[in-house]
Design goal:
Structural class: alpha/beta
CATH class of the largest domain: Alpha Beta
Bound molecules: adenosine-5'-diphosphate
CATH architecture of the largest domain: 3-Layer(aba) Sandwich
Number of strands: 11
Distance between the termini: 55 Å
Strand content: 15-25%
Largest sheet: 7 strands, mixed
Order of helices and strands: EHEHEHEHEHEHEHEHEHEEHH
Radius of gyration: 21 Å
Number of helices: 11
């Protein structure tokens, strides 16, 4: 193996730049040439490749987003798109690829691997933390810290006015962000996609807190009742309660990565280079209980990673 490529794809996540930097530095140390693919799968199809070096990857470790850019690429969903991408990879003499993204990125990488036999190692880059085979994903720690800081500010106004607030956090399919942020911000109720949200229980919590007091309800965007606005409307229709809604949205994706995300991104970058050199392919490198793991890409989305039961129990003990 002489030349490898790295790209970021799907939702951007803080820590991706630390990851890119590590791939370039460790690749160079192992005698490899490292190419950056600009703009995820769209860039792969269009042949947007550039050589990475120490200068290109200097002064990026503290930056959010991804210097390699990212995309959602419709064309890659079809065999013709993947064929065009494989052609470009072969034309550029790429012997192995590191794909940093979420489950969509991995589905694409798995298909590319099966159809065109290009060695690919995935690395978990998503704020959602919803990939099986790793305790944490790159970007998650920054996202929960950013969300908690924002909620602390909302709490000040909620407290001053004695208001009920529904605050929506990201997490399309999983309640990791909502659970950790809910516990960290001392929320009175946490609604996540993994559990059935009982509106009557929620109402009783609001009553117990006192109608003239601050009440914070954290809602994971993937909650089966449909997010913070829906939950607020339901409470209003059924019980006549007035509430404010705050949707944190993309603020959770941005910003300088935390130490944890910089270290995780760097560690998995180094491990991904070594995995390719050791002949691993169609796998994701992760970190479980402090050890590097290699799990098949398919496992990362077929096995649903549960929010740890101790965390769910803790959240109900703390209200
Ligand atoms: P994430 O990787 O953050 O989950 P997406 O779900 O948007 O983000 O996926 C990123 C890209 O991966 C998509 O835009 C598409 O190009 C590719 N992709 C997603 N799902 C598949 C699939 N089933 N087959 C092939 N490519 C896919």
């Amino acid at each position: 193996m002489k030349r490898i490529a790295v790209f970021t794809s799907g939702g951007d996540a803080p820590g991706m730049n630390a990851h890119i930097r590590a791939v370039e530095r460790v690749g160079e140390k192992r005698g490899l040439e490292v190419i950056g693919i600009i703009g995820g799968y769209s860039g792969m199809i269009a042949g947007h490749f550039e050589v990475l070096d120490r200068i290109r990857t200097a002064n990026i470790i503290d930056r959010g987003g991804t210097v390699l850019k990212t995309s959602r690429c419709e064309e890659f969903l079809y065999p013709q798109g993947r064929e065009a991408a494989a052609r470009e990879l072969k034309a550029h003499g790429i012997d192995g690829v590191i794909a940093c993204g979420g489950d969509g990125t991995f589905r694409g990488a798995h298909a590319l691997c099966l159809e065109h036999h290009i060695p690919i190692v995935g690395t978990p880059g998503t704020i959602d933390n919803d990939l099986s085979g790793t305790d944490y994903t790159i970007g998650y720690d920054t996202a929960v810290n950013t969300a908690t800081e924002a909620i602390d500010k909302i709490r000040d106004t909620a407290d001053s006015h004695g208001r009920l607030f529904f605050i929506e956090v990201m997490g399309r399919h999983a309640g990791f962000i909502a659970m950790d942020v809910g516990i960290a911000s001392g929320a009175e109720f946490i609604a996540v996609p993994e559990t059935i949200t009982d509106v009557e229980v929620l109402y009783q919590r609001v009553l117990a807190q006192g109608l003239d007091k601050r009440t914070i309800v954290i809602v994971g965007e993937g909650d089966e009742l449909g997010g913070a606005t829906m939950l607020s409307n339901l409470i209003n229709e059924r019980y006549g309660l007035e509430a404010r809604v705050a949707i944190l949205g993309h603020i959770q994706r941005g910003g300088s990565p935390t130490v944890r995300d910089r270290v995780l991104g760097s560690r998995l970058g180094a491990a991904a280079v070594d995995a390719l050199l050791e002949g691993h392919t169609d796998v994701m490198v992760g970190d479980m209980a402090g050890a590097i793991t290699h799990v098949s890409l398919e496992q990362t989305w077929t096995f649903r990673k549960p929010v740890p039961p101790v965390i769910v129990e803790l959240s109900s003990l703390l209200v």
